[in-house]
Hints:
The mean pLDDT is 84. The longest helix has 15 residues, at 25-39. The chain is mainly alpha-helical. The radius of gyration is 14 Å and the shape is elongated. 4% of the residues are buried. The protein has helices spanning 3-10, 25-39, 44-51, 55-66. Helix content is 64%, strand content 0%. It has a domain at 23-67: Orthogonal Bundle (Arc Repressor Mutant, subunit A), CATH 1.10.10.
Amino acid sequence: MNRILETLVSTGPIRSVPPSTLPTLDELVGEYILMLLALTHHNISQTARILNISRTTLYNRLRRQSS
């Protein structure tokens, strides 16, 4: 399980978590992309196929995430 989901699971019911501590959608998507990259041994083409996006879109997403 990734870092963000582990944090959410360990905090209990979502209503007791301050909104400022919850991950954003961009953070969740970024974690998912990184997980897929690890599972595909950093194969950009395979990861993009799994996500049903172009390699260019994946590269742009990774670039935006690292900023």
